[in-house]
């Protein structure tokens, strides 16, 4: 059984059936590349994997335990990079990373920040406030964030957006290092990223018409978020 897996996943957003009968499996060192047309559900799948959305059917497990049985443990093991860089505009790059390290309970934050700043080649921006960063510099800062603290799983939604070619190659190296240490990386991209032998998961293959899905299931009453009252309140 794979360390991280999902089986027979169905994703509803609003009243739209985004995909169904989708399964995946990943072990330490694996990379999965999500592909699909705009709106196919790549971001939705990454959010399901992060435990930020709940599948309408199917289950996602880590070491055979459903991720929703212990969401705190799941969030602690993963780093999620969404479309938003979530950089605080009034804080410097270093302070942004410091805040993130504190939230993750990292011990030796300053040393980890220095390592991350060098890895993303943004050490010279350490004291620059978030509001003065270019979009590529913001993206690099967001990527530096995923290096702070221990993680077993990286979920990266379009990580190359805003990056120049050099930074994209640097990201590919970081992914290779993370995999070499046993990390699992799942990422969506519209451009080629030099990741070695990723497993391709084409979300377009899991598009099914709502009418077909309804034949086997109850009528959809809600979105994945709304099926969890705690999340719906957020
Ligand atoms: N918050 C939401 N509420 C309702 N529907 C949503 C929501 N977010 C996304 N959707 C819908 O879910 C579907 C999948 O969107 P998603 O963002 O996962 O696709 P994607 O493959 O990541 O697209 P892209 O390549 O354009 O980033 C789309 O039809 C979209 O309109």
How would you describe this structure to a colleague?
It is built from eight helices and nine strands. The chain has helices spanning 42-49, 71-77, 93-103, 109-119, 135-145, 165-180, 210-216, 229-232, and strands at residues 4-13, 16-26, 31-35, 57-62, 65-66, 78-81, 153-157, 184-188, 199-202. It has a five-stranded parallel sheet with strand order 6-7-8-3-9, with helices on both faces. It has a four-stranded antiparallel sheet with strand order 2-1-4-5, covered by helices on one side. Helix 3 crosses helix 4 (109-119). The radius of gyration is 18 Å and the shape is globular. Bound molecules: adenosine-5'-triphosphate (ATP). Adenosine-5'-triphosphate binds at residues 13-14, 16, 18, 36, 38-44.
CATH top level is Alpha Beta
CATH homologous superfamily annotation: P-loop containing nucleotide triphosphate hydrolases
Count of discrete domains: 1
- How much helix, percentage-wise, in residues? 25-40%
Q: What name does the CATH topology carry? A: Rossmann fold
Which H/E pattern describes the elements? EEEHEEHEHHHEHEEHH
User: What's the gyration radius in Å?
Assistant: 18 Å
State the CATH architecture: 3-Layer(aba) Sandwich
Strand content: 15-25%
- Contiguous low-pLDDT stretches (5 residues minimum) are 221-234
Rounded to the nearest angstrom, the distance between the terminal CA atoms is: 34 Å
How many helices in DSSP terms? 8
Ligands present? adenosine-5'-triphosphate
Main sheet strand line-up: 6-7-8-3-9
What structural category characterises the helix and strand content? Answer: alpha/beta
Describe the sheet with the most strands. Answer: 5 strands, parallel
